[in-house]
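Recall that a protein's primary structure is simply its ordered list of amino acids. Everything else, from secondary elements to tertiary packing, is in principle encoded there. The following example makes that idea concrete.
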Amino acid sequence: MEWLYLTIAVVFEIGFALGTNATKGFTRLWPSVFTLACAAGGIFTLSLALRTLDVGVGYTIWTGVGSIGTVVLGALIYKEKITPAKLISFGAIIGGVVLLRVAAGI
């Protein structure tokens, strides 16, 4: 169940990051409400995952996978570029997540 909670937390993390850009410095009401709700949902579901996952594993996966999702969706939504350096970084993050899961015995 902890991995389901972590997956939900990652989705909230991505929504939070993308929503922050849409708030225009928290001057737009509905994007701001969305962003704050995602922040709260992400922290709450992360805390549920961390009841059984090590904090080092859970938090690192949450931020790492959230970062990848943010870059990919940022490219699709905001037309940001995905460069070769970003692709190499994705590989490093994914490799790190896999190694953390192996190290955690999962």
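The chain has four helices and no strands. The chain has a mean pLDDT of 93.
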